[in-house]
Amino acid sequence: MQKVVKKLPRHVQENIEDLVKEIESGTIPPGRKPEKVKSRSDVFKFWLSSGYRIAVQTDDEGHGRFVHVETRSSFYESLKRKR
Questions:
Q1: What digits encode the pLDDT tens for the residues 30-43?
Q2: 3-state DSSP call for residue 46?
Q3: Which residues pair with 70 in a beta bridge?
Q4: Rounded Cα gap, residues 24 and 27, in angstroms
Q5: Is 5 in contact with 16 (CB distance < 8 Å)?
Q6: How far is the CA of 78 from the CAs of 24, 40, 63, 73, in angstroms?
Q7: How far apart are CA 10 and CA 50, in angstroms?
Q8: I need a surface site. Which of 14, 48, 69, 77 has the fewest CB within 10 A?
Q9: Distance, first Cα to last Cα, the chain
């Protein structure tokens, strides 16, 4: 996760790190999808060391906006269903 985040601008990186802390602390539960994604180009997806896969979209000011979080097992289940 750190490799992906390090490539982003500092203010984006800090915002995403805050989101990651919320996810890992359980504030944001797996499977929650609070907002629709308008354009896929601004969405960053990566795995956390804790086993969660998250997607974060950045707005024009570069603030990360939580889009989706899922567990490793739910991710693989969704792949099986797509086949």
A1: 555 545 555 555 67
A2: strand
A3: 53
A4: 8
A5: yes
A6: 22, 19, 28, 9
A7: 23
A8: 77
A9: 27
